[in-house]
Write a structure and sequence with these properties.
It is a single chain. By secondary structure, the protein is an all-alpha fold. It has helices spanning 3-23, 30-62, 74-89, 94-97, 99-123, 129-153, 156-164, 175-193, 199-202, 206-211, 216-237, 244-256, 261-285, 293-315. The protein contains 14 helices and no strands. It is globular.
């Protein structure tokens, strides 16, 4: 089966699974249950799509299939923002009670952080993407440590609220946040179209791309901003899911057997949505909400990450 037929098959499976989740065992107060399930599926599509989309771009930029945008420290920064808000204003403050304000504030801070990071990187000569990753890892570790320190100091009840923010949850998605996310993802996708033509060439590496006429540094800067916005949207909407991007993009590479980004992006987005809807279905119907979807994704993703490391080690 060619990659075009595989893409069509993935799209069909994704749509079928979404309809199955929405209409499976639909009994009781349908006027209440049906809109809630539709909102959940839309939130899953936005989150899965944003994570897969951004991770595919990030792996192309770094030319590495193990690195994901989480190494930039954006997930850790999100947790730090939530903890600082609770520490300074309390869990009953205006920012925490109104999800839209919290959501937009988190996105703005995370994007500003990314812009400052990239501005610092591209200001000097000789800096490259790997220098950016090193700075991201250091800052991510600092954010995590500072978050833990502040959580020790706050009230135990508010500590529990901060802990809830550390785990992805699709069950309490705010409808207004979903609508805001649709607008943001749509704008980012429009912005991405002008840089799409460079991705296949950039996968050859920095030197080859520059020799073939790609304005490499400028394109990387814009693509990294797109990655930051998408990760901010997915993290603020549902919560951090560490290994999802690593898992779905590598599965997409193995399944699609192509390096054409048009099909890779569609394939990874569909696989991501299938994984999230399937995971949420398992959480609700098998585990009856005794665990969260992030636990299942991180468990499977962690095993797959170890497999990738062992596989690469054998190739040496």
């Amino acid at each position: 089966m060619g990659y075009k037929k595989k893409t069509i098959a993935l799209v069909v499976i994704t749509v079928a699974l979404a309809f199955l989740y929405i209409f499976y065992d639909l009994t009781g107060n349908i006027d209440y249950i049906l809109p809630k399930r539709i909102i959940k599926v839309v939130a899953i599509i936005l989150t899965g799509g944003a994570i897969a989309f951004s991770t595919t771009i990030f792996m192309t930029i770094t030319n590495n299939r193990i690195l994901t945008p989480s190494v930039l420290g954006l997930d850790s920064l999100y947790m730090l923002i939530q903890t600082v808000i609770i520490f300074v204003f309390g869990s009953r403050s205006l920012v925490m009670m109104h999800g839209e304000i919290n959501y937009l504030l988190s996105i703005v801070i995370m994007v500003l952080f990314s812009l400052l990071l990239y501005q610092f990187l591209f200001r000097g000569e000789g800096n490259n993407v790997y220098f950016l990753l090193l700075i991201g890892i250091i800052l991510g570790t600092f954010f995590s440590s500072f978050t833990s320190f502040m959580q020790v100091l706050i009230d135990p009840n508010e500590f529990m609220i901060a802990q809830d923010r550390m785990f992805a949850s699709i069950n309490n998605v705010n409808t207004d946040l979903v609508y805001l996310s649709i607008g943001l993802v749509f704008l980012v996708t429009l912005y991405f179209i002008r840089f799409y033509k460079y991705l296949d060439v950039m996968q050859l590496g920095r030197d080859q791309a520059i020799n073939l006429g790609v304005p490499y540094d400028r394109v990387v800067k814009h693509l990294l901003i797109i990655v930051a916005v998408l990760i901010s949207v997915s993290t603020a909407l549902i919560g951090p899911i560490t290994f999802l991007g690593l898992l779905v993009v590598n599965v997409a590479y193995e399944f699609m057997k192509t390096y054409r980004h048009f099909y890779l992006i569609i394939g990874s987005v569909c696989i991501s949505i299938i994984a999230l809807i399937g995971g949420q279905f398992i959480v609700e119907k098998i585990f009856t909400f005794h665990t969260t979807i992030s636990v299942i994704i991180n468990f499977v993703g962690g095993i797959y990450f170890i497999y990738l490391l062992l596989k690469e080690n054998k190739s040496w």
